[in-house]
Design goal:
By secondary structure, the protein is α/β, with parallel strands linked by helices. The chain is 34% helix and 16% strand.
Length: 395
Amino acid sequence: MGLLAGAWALAEPAAGQTQPETQQIRAAVLRVDVQGLPPISRLDLPPEDLGFAGARLAIDDNDTTGRFMGQDFEAVEVTATPGTALAELDRIIADGIQFVVVLADDATTLALADQAGDRAMLLNARARGDRLRGADCRFNTIHVAPSHAMLADALAQFLMWKNWPDWLLVPGSHPEDQALAAAYRRAAAKFGATIVEERVYEDTGGARSTDSGYVQVQAQMPVFTQRAPDHDVLIAADESDVFAPYLPYLTWDPRPVAGSAGLVPRSWHPAMEAWGATQYQNRFERMANRPIREEDYQTWLALRIVGEAATRTGSADPAELRDFILSDQFDVAGFKGQKLTVRDWDHQVRQPILLTTGPVTTSVSPQDQYLHQTSALDTLGLDRPETECSFREAP
């Protein structure tokens, strides 16, 4: 009893002293939902708390340290449509929040960055387009989600390690599919692979899964992929989720499938166990009662970036936090075996990329044989000499 009382006495301020005022660090998570067809597999139906669950875990993690630093973290959760997103962003900023995690497509992310201007820092937790890190880059945006170029390079490195240099590239017909295909073309040139043929899968609309769906697919996919030049692997570029999951085991030639199905490059995977990831997965699953998704991890990491900056600087001032995040002094842990940092030329978060099948992580890129004068992580994506980014403030 005496020891317990003594411990409480040490924790309490002395008579006449006051507790220092708690610093509050506020952020928001803005998820922009688009109505469309359901995913091919019902296992991929998005949960209602997609992204938000990652935010809640990040706030718990930030508060674990923050309570000892006199800091309190908050993340407001907001859903919007493309038509209401700009108004919701204005409302968030008007409420005094200057860090906004955005889960949106490329076009909406860019529009939100321009709407925010110098009023807020956005942390992109979904959009993958290379133009957002290049010709359309904005100084007020940090890209936590990996780019198309990073994902394509990560897969290309592994395929070259496997000595599978000949690729049959099958992009979809939507613009986002073509953007991903462009990243694979660039990766092939970068690492010495050969694209033996490109064969576009045209989306003709209609239902993608019906009672007789598998019968039609079983007949169609072998015909679609027949008479291709000799190749080691088929790479699908299907950001629209129209056809890629149907390719494994249904190609005319017995070849592995990679890209948007088969061996898939990802920022995170629910089976990841290395570098302390098991404990991270367990905490997420206890809280959300489901496996983690990439959007959850990317939102978690975005808010951990803010939390780490607040802890390291001892500040709650948004301008000071932003400057520290963008400095060469900043890094954050992400359960990927090394520190994650922000590239100064396009504000992309450097990070390893997991190469995954359904149940496991097969490998992690960058592969050991690919070296870099500064960071091996810069072998993934657009390096400083390659960037088309020339920062200008959003209007």
